[in-house]
Amino acid sequence: MANNWYHSTWKRLLFTIRESRLNVALVIPALNEEESLGAVLGQVDRNLVNEIILVDGGSIDGTVAIAEANGVRVIQEDQRGYGRACAVGVANTQSEVIVFMDADGADDPTQISDLLTPIMRDEADMVLGSRLAGAISPGAMPWHQKFGNQLSAGMIRFLYGLPISDLSPFRAVLRSKLQELDMQEMTYGWPTEMITKAARRGWRILEVPVNYHPRIGGRSKISGTVRGTVLATYYIMRTIIKFSWSKDLQ
Question: Is the dihedral of CA 218, 232, 85, 94 positive or negative?
Fold first, then answer.
């Protein structure tokens, strides 16, 4: 019965996407992710995604070769920064909908359909995948990462009136709307800037629960190091406060 439900849901979504005539691009920032990338790409449903763009920040392992072997368009970006990689991906596609997903295997690529459905039904401008509302596998999210996400989401609820539970970078957004935001944060604050600016502009923002797993290989550039955790927390908090009073976004 579960399989019948899955196939029925998938068929309805695929029909909706075809009828909507919206193209979907999957943007994946990556840096030395050869241990996980092949498995991640193998789970992406190519019937839902028209193109996959991997923005490589200077990998010295087999990341680029794996991406190219899987038919992925690779864009080299010499300047480091998570936000910069996302922005480069956006600038190199004309697709109407963009899905952002990490390359480490922590996100579940089979849930891309969950992110797309509200947009394809014209119910949302941006859909956020909430790990804290979904199922987190043991060891997937260190306590300090979980606490930081809860704190940041709480600040956004208080300052922006947006009822979200997580700042997950696994999300889908209309490219035309995203281009209106004039994104400036080129490091860890990029996903937060998107949420806060969108909230100030009155976007239709929805959350859907997503699963979160331990990364397949390597170490997180953020939660895997003290420096990464501190920097990410600083940029996220600064971004939340900065755009809460900006008059330019009203």
Answer: positive
Give Cα separations from 204 to 19, 86, 92, 239 (angstroms).
21, 21, 25, 20
* Alpha helices (H) in 181-243, listed in sequence order: 190-200, 226-242
Task: Locate 183 and state its tokens.
Answer: 């994104």
CB 153 within 8 A of CB 166: yes
Whether the CB-CB separation of 196 and 160 falls below 8 Å is answered with yes
DSSP 138-170: TTSS-HHHHHHHHHHHHHHHHHH----S---S-
Torsional sign, CA 86, 87, 90, 91: negative
**What domains appear along the chain, each with residue ranges and CATH number?**
16-249 (3.90.550.10)
Residue 119 one-letter amino acid: I
Residues 49 and 76: beta-carbon distance below 8 Å? no
Q: Which runs of E-coded beta strand occur in 14-96?
A: 24-30, 51-56, 73-76
Q: What is this structure's pTM?
A: 0.87
Question: What is the tens place of the pLDDT at every residue in 39-93?
Answer: 999 999 999 999 999 999 999 999 999 999 999 999 999 898 999 999 999 999 9
Cα–Cα distance measured from residue 27 to residue 42, given in angstroms and rounded to the nearest whole number:
15
**pLDDT per position as a tens digit, 170-209:** 999 999 999 999 999 898 889 999 999 999 999 999 999 9
d(CA 149, CA 236): 10
Supply the pLDDT for residue 65: 97
Identify which of 71, 81, 80, 79 has the alpha carbon closest to the alpha carbon of residue 26: 71
- In angstroms, how far is CA 204 from the centroid of its own chain? 17
